[in-house]
């Protein structure tokens, strides 16, 4: 017996295919972006060509992530969101809602602060979006602002990493301890045929 294809839109019980694809695509891109940022910051100054190429990649991925996060947020706001499991304590619902909101703030704040950092760099290097066109920088060179945005960007990156670990731990807790469908309903359906 064949299963019906997953619904594109969310329901009150399940995440739809669009939400799942955006969730896992963002998760993969954000993990790669975090690792790339960490790697780039440790490169020696002598590797100028490699550093330039990796920074351009990091900026293109960052701007793409910003667009995908905004799309995901619009999708989430524009449709139903699956409800909480029965019996979930109110404090846990509030903590989950707050952590999801904070994840969105960080997923938007990271690319914005990164872009503001490079737009204020005294080096004045262009931001080439996937090598297709230059993205205009809204601010001019300013070493003080570059350092400030860089510090904020780095702190947001570490906060994001911590919050993602908390998010994963909560999903695993729901699956293994609470034995509810919180994790299962975000996984691709083919894992549970």
From TrEMBL:
One GO term of the biological process aspect: respiratory electron transport chain
InterPro entries linked to this entry: Cyt_b561_bac/Ni-Hgenase (IPR011577), Cytochrome_b561_oxidase (IPR052168), Di-haem_cyt_TM (IPR016174)
Residue ranges of domain Cytochrome b561 bacterial/Ni-hydrogenase in the record: 15-188
Keywords from the UniProt entry: Cell membrane, Electron transport, Heme, Iron, Membrane, Metal-binding, Transmembrane, Transmembrane helix, Transport
Regions that span the bilayer: 21-40, 60-77, 98-118, 156-176
Topology in membrane: Multi-pass membrane protein
GO molecular function, one term: heme binding
CC per GO annotation: plasma membrane
Major site of localization recorded for this protein: membrane
Compartments (UniProt record): Cell membrane
Domain of life: Bacteria
Cofactors required: heme b
Family assignment from sequence similarity: Belongs to the cytochrome b561 family.
Name of the protein described by the UniProt record: Cytochrome b
Annotated organism of origin: Marinimicrococcus flavescens
């Amino acid at each position: 017996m064949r299963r019906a294809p997953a619904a594109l839109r969310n329901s009150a019980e399940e995440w739809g295919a669009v939400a799942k694809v955006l969730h896992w695509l963002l998760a993969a891109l954000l993990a790669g972006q975090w690792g790339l940022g960490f790697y780039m910051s440790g490169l020696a100054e002598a590797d100028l060509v490699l550093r330039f190429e990796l920074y351009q990649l990091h900026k293109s991925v960052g701007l793409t992530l910003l667009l995908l996060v905004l799309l995901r947020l619009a999708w989430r706001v524009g449709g139903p969101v699956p409800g909480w499991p029965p019996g979930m304590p109110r404090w846990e619902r509030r903590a989950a809602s707050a952590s999801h909101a904070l994840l969105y703030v960080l997923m938007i704040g990271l690319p914005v602060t990164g872009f503001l950092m490079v737009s204020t760099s005294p080096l004045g290097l262009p931001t080439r979006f996937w090598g297709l066109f230059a993205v205009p920088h809204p601010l001019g060179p300013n070493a003080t602002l570059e350092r400030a945005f860089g510090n904020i960007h780095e702190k947001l990156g570490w906060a994001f990493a911590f919050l993602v670990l908390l998010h994963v731990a909560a999903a695993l807790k729901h699956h293994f301890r609470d034995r509810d469908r919180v994790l299962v309903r975000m996984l691709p359906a083919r894992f549970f045929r």
